[in-house]
Write a structure and sequence with these properties.
The chain is of the alpha+beta class. The chain has six helices and eight strands. It comes from Acaryochloris thomasi RCC1774.
Length: about 170
């Protein structure tokens, strides 16, 4: 029994998933006996190789909320097509609630020019060179979801050619 538990723990350490907490909020619910306090954690999970997800967890303690957020983030993973310059293939805008996030490819050496939750999402997705701008809302959850929507909507030349059933060379003509 103890050996099996140890194996699980070492497997978790070997996994290349990173998690970053974007926000922890104390929230309350009014019940008959008064106010019931709990915590909401927004967590971004990624492997820096093109997979990233955003999760939300609520629990009566912070550690439980973060754990639930990580589990939720792993359920919401999206694949990100990266270019050779570790950038996004084309400009795109994503929406999440009232938030809009604009992403543009950048030259190698530029770095991640983004702020807040969008920066965290892009870094954990493995994007190294990108320009991003948050428009509309400054809510970290909606901005993270908007960035995830933008990354999920990205397409590559080979992907578009495959969808149309033609060779990549015909796309340029």
């Amino acid at each position: 029994m103890a050996g099996r538990r140890k194996g699980n723990r070492s497997r978790e350490k070997d996994s290349n998933w990173q998690e970053r907490v974007v926000q922890i909020r104390r929230v309350s619910k009014v019940v008959k006996g008064g106010k019931k306090l709990s915590f909401r954690a927004i967590v971004v999970v990624g492997n820096e190789k093109g997979q990233v997800g955003v999760g939300v967890g609520k629990a009566s303690d912070v550690i439980g909320a973060v754990r639930k957020g990580v589990a939720d983030g792993k359920k919401q993973l999206v694949e990100v097509p990266l270019t050779k310059a570790n950038s996004v293939p084309h400009p795109i805008t994503g929406r999440g609630g009232a938030a809009k996030v604009m992403l543009r490819p950048a030259a190698p050496g530029t770095g991640v020019i983004a702020g807040g939750a969008v920066r965290t999402v892009l870094e954990l997705a493995g994007v190294r060179n990108v320009l991003a701008k948050q428009l509309g809302s400054d809510n970290p959850l909606n901005n993270a979801r908007a960035a995830l929507d933008a990354l999920d909507s990205l397409r590559t030349f080979s992907g578009v050619a495959e969808e149309r059933g033609i060779p990549v060379e015909k796309l340029y003509a």
